[in-house]
Amino acid sequence: MFHVLVADSISSEGLTPLLEAENVKVYRKDREEDNYNPEDIDALLVRSATQVDDALLSSLSNLQVVARAGVGVDNIDITAATKRGVVVINAPDGNTISTAEHTFAMISSLVRHIPQANMNVKGAQWSRKKFIGTELFGKTLGIVGFGRIGGEIAKRAKAFQMKVVVYDPFLTDTRAEKLSVISLPLDEVMKQADIITVHTPLTKETKGLFNKENIPQLKKGVYLVNCARGGIIDEEALLHHLNTGHVAGAALDVFEVEPPTNHDLVQHEHVIVTPHLGASTKEAQYNVAFQVSKDVLAYLNGQSVNTSINLPTIPKEIYKKIQPFYQLGKTLGSILSQSAKTPIEEITATYAGVITEWETSILTKSIIAGFLRNRVDTTVNEVNAATIAKERGISYGEKHQTDSYGYSNIIQVEAQGKDVNLVVRATFIEGFGARIVHMNGFDIDFAPSGHLLYVQHTDRPGVIGQLGLIFGKHETNIATMHVGRMLQGGKAIMMLSFDQPLEKVLIDEILLIPDISSAIILEL
Ligand SMILES: NC(=O)C1=CN([C@@H]2O[C@H](COP(=O)(O)OP(=O)(O)OC[C@H]3O[C@@H](n4cnc5c(N)ncnc54)[C@H](O)[C@@H]3O)[C@@H](O)[C@H]2O)C=CC1
Ligand SMILES: O=C(O)C(=O)COP(=O)(O)O
C-alpha cells in the first residue's frame, strides 16, 4: 500500500486517480481524523503554500515523490529532493489559461482603476473624474518571460489591438513569428512598453529583475504587473517609484512574502492586489490535480512519468542503479561549463565498463543538463536539455569503448569549441564515491564536490609555496590539494578544495604568480 499526503488545498475531483487506486491511501493534512505516520508517506502533493525544504523532506524519510499541483516549484528545494532521490513532478500547463486570463483581468482593472472605483461607489461616493483611465488599444505591452502564460497573454493582447514586445532569452524566431510578437532585448522592451507584465520563474537571475536602478529607464507613467512570483519586481523599488510618480500603477497577484507584509505597497492608492489567485479556477485546479495524480500513481507503480523536474522518465529500479552516475554526469557537465571560457559547440560522452550495459543516453542528458545549468536561466533537466542544447547550437553525442583505463567504470566527457578542447574523465567507486581521474591531459584524483580551484601552472619549485602564502594572507584554509603533471618541469595542474566559496580578489592575486597560467573557481 502506498501512502499519499495531500498537504495543500487540492481539488478532490482531480485527485480521483489516486482516490480510486486500490493500492493507495490518501491523507489530507488539514483533516484531523486523517492520522498518518510521516515515515510511511510515499508521495507528497502540494501547491504553493507548503515549503518543501530539507527539514520536511527528512521528516518524510520514506518519501519517493513530491508533486506540485501547479507550475512554479520555487517552494520546493529541488537540490535537496534530488540528493535524497525524491522525484519532483509538476503540472506545467494545467493552469496556463487561468493565469493568463487573471493577468489580463488585472491589466484591464489596473488601467481603468476598477478596484478603486468599485470601493468608491460602495463607499457611497460617485467620483467619476477621479477615475479617468487609459485605453489598451494601440498601447505597447511588454511581456518579460515568454513561455506558456506569456504566449497566452500575447494572444489576448492582440485581440485588444495592442502592440506586443517581448523579452525571453530562449525565445526562438519561429515562436515569436507564430504569435506575431516582436522579440527584443530587455532594455528595449523596457524603453518601449506602456505596460509591462512579467512571466518568468523566480530564479537568482529574475529576482529583482526590475529594481531601483532600472525602473527609471522605463517610460514615465508605465504600469507594472506581476502575476508570476513575488520579487521579480523588487517591492521596495516599486513602492519608491510609485511614490515618485515614475510608475503610474501596479497590479500584483504575488508577493515576496505571502501573505504580504509590505503594507505601504499593498495599501498604495495606485496598487491593485489579489491573493495569489492566478490559478484559482475550478478548471485549473481540476487540471493540475488530475495531471499530478496520474503521474504520482504512475511513478509509485514503477511506470514512467510525463513531467519530472529532476529525473528522466525511467522506471525507478533502473534509476536506482544509475543514480550515482546520473549525479556524476551533471557534475562533469558543470565542471566543463565552468572551465570553458569560450563557446562550446560539441559535447561527446564516452562510457566504458559496467555502465555500458545500461541505457546511457539518460546519463548523456544529465551531462548536457549539468553543462547548461550554469549557462541558462531556466530549469534545465533531462527532459528539456536536448531542446535547449539545440537552441543554443550545441550538438552532442555518445560512444561506448572497451578500454576503461583500469577502472570498473568510466565516464569521459569532451567539450569542443572553436579554440578549446576540454576533457574530463571520472569513475564512481561503490562505498567511496565519485572521483575525477583525468583532466585535460593530466591524470589526477579528487572528489568533485564543494568549492574548488582548478589551477594550471608550470611544475617548478616554489609555485605551490607562493600560492600557499596568498591563501595564508587571506586566512583561507586549503582543505585538500591534488597535483598532476606530465613531465618534471613541464605543464601541471592543481585542484584545491576549500571550506567556503573563494573571493574573486584572491584569484586576481594568484594570477600574478608568473608560473600560474590560469585559476578557475569551480562550484560543484
Ligand atoms: N499567479 C499564479 O497563480 C501563477 C503563477 N505562475 C508563475 O508564472 C511563471 C511562468 O509560468 P509559465 O509561463 O507556465 O512557465 P514557462 O516555463 O512556460 O515560461 C517561463 C518563461 O520564462 C523565461 N525565462 C526564464 N528566465 C528568464 C529571464 N531571466 N528573463 C526572461 N525570461 C526568462 C523562460 O525562457 C520561459 O520561456 C511560473 O514560473 C510561475 O512562477 C504560474 C502559474 C500560476
Ligand atoms: O502554479 C503556480 O506556479 C502557481 O503559482 C499557482 O499557485 P497555487 O497552486 O494557486 O498556490
Automatic annotation (TrEMBL):
Q: Which family does it belong to?
A: Belongs to the D-isomer specific 2-hydroxyacid dehydrogenase family.
Q: Which InterPro entries match?
A: ACT-like_dom_sf, ACT_dom, ASB_dom_sf, D-isomer_2_OHA_DH_cat_dom, D-isomer_DH_CS, D-isomer_DH_CS1, D-isomer_DH_NAD-bd, NAD(P)-bd_dom_sf
Domain ACT: where?
452-524
- The protein's name is D-3-phosphoglycerate dehydrogenase
Catalyses which reaction(s): (R)-2-hydroxyglutarate + NAD(+) = 2-oxoglutarate + NADH + H(+); (2R)-3-phosphoglycerate + NAD(+) = 3-phosphooxypyruvate + NADH + H(+)
Keywords assigned by UniProt, alphabetized: Amino-acid biosynthesis, NAD, Oxidoreductase, Serine biosynthesis
- Organism encoding this protein: Sutcliffiella horikoshii
Q: What does this protein do?
A: Catalyzes the reversible oxidation of 3-phospho-D-glycerate to 3-phosphonooxypyruvate, the first step of the phosphorylated L-serine biosynthesis pathway. Also catalyzes the reversible oxidation of 2-hydroxyglutarate to 2-oxoglutarate.
Gene3D superfamilies with a match to the protein in the record = 3.30.70.260, D-3-phosphoglycerate dehydrogenase, domain 3 (3.30.1330.90), NAD(P)-binding Rossmann-like Domain (3.40.50.720)
Q: What is the lineage of its organism?
A: Bacteria, Bacillati, Bacillota, Bacilli, Bacillales
Protein's pathway: Amino-acid biosynthesis; L-serine biosynthesis; L-serine from 3-phospho-D-glycerate: step 1/3
Q: So which domain of life are we looking at? A: Bacteria
Q: What is its EC number?
A: 1.1.1.95
